[in-house]
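Dear support,

Our group has been running a series of protein-ligand predictions, and this particular one with guanosine-5'-diphosphate is the one our PI (initials K.S.) wants archived with full inputs and outputs. We had some confusion internally about which version of the output was final, so please treat the block below as the authoritative record. The input we submitted was:
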Amino acid sequence: EMFGQLTSGLEAAWSKLKGEEVLTKENIAEPMRDIRRALLEADVSLPVVRRFVQTVSDQAAGVGLIRGVKPDQQLVKIVHDELVKLMGGEVSDLVFSKSGTTVILLAGLQGVGKTTVCAKLAFYLKKLGKSCMMIAADVYRPAAIDQLMILGDQVGVPVYKEGTEVKPSQIARNGLEEAIKRRIDVVIVDTAGRLQIDKAMMDELKQVKQVTNPTEVLLVVDAMTGQEAAALVTTFNIEIGITGAILTKLDGDSRGGAALSVREVSGKPIKLVGRGERLEDLEPFYPDRMAGRILGMGDVLSFVEKAQEVMRQEDAEDLQKKIMSAKFDFNDFLKQTRAVARMGSVSRVLGMIPGMGKVTPAQIREAEKNLQVMEFMINAMTPEEREKPELLAESSTRRKRVATESGKTEQQVSQLVAQLFQMRVRMKNLLGVMETGSIPALKD
Ligand code: GDP
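Confirmed final output from the archive:
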């Protein structure tokens, strides 16, 4: 089972929430420790783990309840979505040149599976209907060329070689020339690996890159090496400039650290993964499927998604009705501001509130404090006042009471009431209903 240990480590986190009604700062503390431990044991790099745990905690503490969804299920969903983001979100496709021959340059340390990947990639591209050629530019490992020849035979793809006495950049240049002559769609250049990074290897790669002008420079890394793989991707990117990584040996007992760290640490995507020794064991890297596999809870995820969708739909319809009938009240105000704040774009909702204007990131904290002040005041209103803001507009006694109970000034309460009516108008305008006369003057 891929990432089995990580999966069961995370299961410990969910199990701590069984029987809870809601997610709170307090009751997620222990599950978050489990998540942190599980990720560290999976060999995810420490800064990545820290950021991840922080983000998930923040989200979990502020998340609204979804009808019918239990807190542990909700946390699974939050972790899933953050794992997907961590791995780059979308699948990162191979790029082909718009016309002529596409060059894919493969780099990697010895033993990571580079030569195998070369053949797997040719096999994969052939299935996509592209003609391929492999260039044997690994002149240091004597067996490498023979190995590539054998694989080329298996795949049915020609291999260009000039033995081990010619410079790799020379072989690559000649091979590419030959491929262009034969109108080959994609050329895959297999370069030499070393046991560890050295200057000679980097220089050679730079030369090969220079003469072949590749659209893809992919570093092959071994998933078993965990966060070290992510560090390698970073180094190669700085040294020679790469477009992505291919992660091999995901079928083994790799712990997940590489898959989870590469993107975040290096900024470069994993484009393909190898999941076995056969030619067909190479596939695109899908962050969402990978996250799903790690969590092993596909049913829970789709259930939470459906529930969220239903809630969104109902909320939206409900809100629209209310706005159209000028019933947008303080309960909706609260719900809306919370929802948008949760989505991390406080600035957007504040932009909708007159008097707050545009908000820079630096002011967001201030803005969040303001939201909290609003919440205090709304909490001090009676249910009737929340539903009928007119009551507050019409009575300064009520406004004074709300001020006293929330520890704010009457002026602040008056401002909030005015804001609600202004928001009604704004939202109506947003929906294309022109109406300007509905802001009542506050009465004494
Ligand atoms: P190179 O030195 O980087 O060219 O590595 P090779 O392509 O020769 O592969 C080294 C070893 O790893 C070989 O025994 C391969 O069969 C094996 N290997 C490569 N990719 C995978 C993979 O995705 N899964 C598994 N289980 N083994 C792999």
